Amino acid sequence: MKIGHQFGVALLATLAGCVTPATPGPQEVAAAIQKSTAAADLLFQRLSVELATALTNGGPAAAVAICKDRAPAIAAEIEAASGVDIERTALRVRSPANAPDDWEMATMRSFIARRDAGEEWAEMSATRIEGRELNWMRPIPLGGMCATCHGDPASFTQETRLALREAYPDDQATGFKPGELRGAFTARVQVP
User: Fold this and answer.
1) What pLDDT is attached to residue 15?
2) What's the Cα-to-Cα distance from 6 to each of 3, 11, 19, rounded to whole Å?
3) Residues ≥6 apart with Cβ < 8 Å to 26
4) What CA–CA distance (Å, rounded) separates 90 from 119?
């Protein structure tokens, strides 16, 4: 019996060292938020450069192709390098693949309410933790460059309308005014 008890104590001690707490600690959460923020910043920077180049060299129709083809590719590259699943979503999406889940939808609505209450877009973010996964979001207000294809459809060129219709037959993402919530960056990352 004595040997069995010692074995049981040793086994419990070994298992205790292998068990990860169910809820991540504050430092782990802060690190995951920092990774999510960095991934969103990188996606924004890289996409902005490619969009500006496309607008300069090919006009709005070329920019539509960047958003459709390059944005998901850039996000996949960032995920492969960082481990952060970074995407964009919106209340009114251009592509059904970017449709928000319930939490993302509620969070974007809360961003709008916070803005209506006087908070600046740049100060906002939201997080939730499910098990060991951190979900993170930050609003994307409509900027001048994006208004070219997401603003008032009456201002679009015929070429832009055609490019949007061909690339996004179910497009809902027009009619935004500069400064309005266009969408949000959304990230998922495993917390160690």
Assistant:
1) 43
2) 5, 8, 20
3) none
4) 19
Long-range contacts: 97-101, Cβ < 8 Å, 24+?
Answer: 97/72, 98/183, 100/186
pLDDT in tens, 3-60: 444 444 443 444 444 445 578 999 999 999 999 999 999 999 999 999 999 999 999 9
The encoded tokens of residue 29 equal: 């959460």
**Tokens matching residue 68:** 């459709």
Please name the residue that has the structure tokens 């973010």: 125
Burial 140-175 (b: 16+ CB within 10 A, else e): bbbeeebbbbbbeeeebeeebeebbeebbeebebbe
- Alpha carbons within 13 angstroms on the beta-carbon side of residue 151 total 17
Candidates 102, 84, 115, 50; CA nearest to 185 is: 84
Q: Give the tens place of pLDDT for each residue, 90-143.
A: 999 999 999 999 999 999 999 999 999 999 999 999 999 999 999 999 999 999
Model's pTM, two decimal places? 0.86
